[in-house]
């Protein structure tokens, strides 16, 4: 109890009766839960008004930080209260101005043609998008092209203002960016229970059904016996109901919500960026800045970017097969990326107005800086460049429905054999819940310590092999005792 009192006193919630009443709930808190409470307290206790750009990412159309930004809005916090909060469909913002105005005390400027602001306001789109889409102008929905969330956040703020304001005087000055994937909403619905909206009286949106919930209802759609007569955006209505349930939740339920938030932050299903350097430094201190990790030795980060304009990543399970060989005291890495486009016609019937086409991703592979490409197979060409402190291999990969495609990249790692051991840091892409992993590494002589424990040992080739579902960041270590 005394330890909880000390910690909660720092957070400004040191009421003894509350802490004693919820002693059991607090006892389940992890150290990182208190870190998240501290972060939330720092945000809520700031005087005046703060504005955060909200981005809901759809991971069935994978992008570097989680998925296509299909929904966006503004969260306003004023003296610890939330007077304004909305989401809107980024693809049809002209149709959704009424929703935006509903939760705002000022008129929201309609999206305007891109030629209404001066050319100097534009920012150059990513080169691969220009290469794939001729005459492409960077859309807000594609803002999260960088796997560095701080870069994505800065670009998102700029693109939001270029898209929605007529001139620089009307630009929104943001305090930061908050991005989240559907997994966060699903976890909240598990705790809060289902929600209902006025349009769909009697229909409950639950954790089990949210994945299949469309952003919009279209003329001719039926819901609870009603025939929809005009296109209707429903995500914001669901979000407002979740917000109402959250604000009316019991203290014990709120503690559960904190643990759920912490879990999603650690899994990169919830990402923050602050324009305040001190707040951003705290994120980095906690390891929650969603940046590429530093590496002392080997490193691998596979980042898929679905540019098919189709939300089908859940139909494309993939295997990341990484092998390292000792070739004359030099380490040669072979990475095989296999994509199996398993098109289930029954599940996709009615989801698209046109025939589902190929699955295409521009995939970047981040490896230790100084690595050198020596061979590739399965693609026409490989882009090689450096960014974010890593060497990068970039490839366009196209997979036809009901086929499998494997791309092989072979490169020399920039360090020589280490007799003492081996270490590999592998990052999981936010939102990519569709990958399995196979890692094969050369064992140092007399290796006895392994992380993760108990790999398969091939004594003939002197290698250790791990196989697993790739659902979190992994660090592979082999050492002598």
TrEMBL record:
The record's section on InterPro entries has: DUF4012
Spell out the Pfam families in the cross-references.
DUF4012
Q: Which domain of life is it from?
A: Bacteria
- Protein name as it appears in the record: DUF4012 domain-containing protein
Write down the species. Answer: Candidatus Falkowbacteria bacterium CG10_big_fil_rev_8_21_14_0_10_37_6
Q: Name the lineage.
A: Bacteria, Candidatus Falkowiibacteriota
């Amino acid at each position: 109890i005394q330890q909880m009192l000390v910690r909660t006193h720092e957070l400004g919630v040191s009421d003894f009766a509350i802490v004693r009443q919820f002693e059991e709930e607090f006892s389940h808190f992890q150290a990182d839960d208190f870190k998240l409470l501290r972060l939330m307290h720092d945000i809520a206790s700031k005087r005046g008004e703060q504005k955060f750009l909200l981005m809901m990412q759809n991971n069935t159309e994978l992008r570097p930080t989680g998925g296509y930004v299909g929904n966006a809005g503004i969260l306003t916090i004023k003296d610890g209260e939330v007077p304004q909060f909305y989401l809107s469909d980024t693809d049809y913002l002209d149709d959704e101005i009424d929703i935006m105005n509903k939760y705002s005390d000022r008129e929201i400027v309609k999206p305007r043609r891109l030629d209404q602001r001066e050319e100097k306001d534009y920012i150059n789109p990513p080169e691969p998008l220009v290469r794939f889409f001729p005459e492409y102008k960077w859309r807000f929905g594609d803002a999260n092209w960088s796997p560095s969330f701080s870069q994505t956040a800065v670009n998102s703020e700029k693109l939001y203002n270029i898209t929605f304001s007529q001139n620089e005087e009307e630009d929104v000055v943001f305090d930061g960016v908050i991005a989240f994937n559907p997994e966060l909403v699903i976890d909240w619905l598990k705790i809060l229970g289902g929600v209902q909206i006025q349009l769909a009286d009697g229909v409950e949106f639950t954790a089990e059904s949210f994945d299949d919930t469309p952003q919009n209802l279209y003329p001719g759609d039926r819901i609870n016996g009603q025939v929809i007569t005009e296109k209707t955006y429903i995500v914001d209505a669901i979000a407002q109901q979740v917000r109402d349930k959250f604000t009316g939740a019991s203290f014990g339920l709120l503690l559960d919500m904190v643990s759920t938030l912490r879990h999603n932050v650690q899994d990169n299903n919830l990402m923050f960026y602050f324009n305040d350097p001190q707040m951003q430094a705290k994120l980095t201190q906690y390891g929650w800045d969603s940046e590429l990790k530093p590496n002392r030795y080997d490193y691998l980060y596979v980042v898929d970017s679905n540019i098919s304009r189709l939300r089908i990543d859940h139909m494309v399970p993939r295997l990341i097969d990484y092998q390292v060989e000792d070739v004359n005291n030099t380490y040669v890495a072979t990475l095989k990326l296999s994509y199996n486009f398993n098109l289930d016609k029954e599940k996709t019937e009615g989801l698209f107005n046109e025939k589902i086409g190929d699955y295409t991703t521009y995939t970047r592979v981040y490896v230790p800086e100084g690595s050198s490409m020596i061979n590739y197979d399965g693609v026409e060409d490989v882009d090689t460049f450096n960014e974010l402190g890593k060497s990068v291999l970039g490839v366009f990969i196209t997979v036809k429905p009901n086929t499998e495609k494997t791309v092989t990249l072979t490169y020399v790692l920039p360090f020589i054999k280490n007799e003492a051991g081996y270490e590999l840091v592998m990052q999981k892409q936010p939102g990519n819940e569709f990958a399995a992993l196979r890692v094969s590494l050369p064992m140092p002589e007399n290796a006895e310590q392994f992380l993760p424990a108990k790999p398969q040992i091939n004594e003939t080739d002197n290698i250790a092999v791990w196989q697993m579902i790739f659902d979190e960041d992994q660090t592979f270590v082999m050492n002598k005792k």
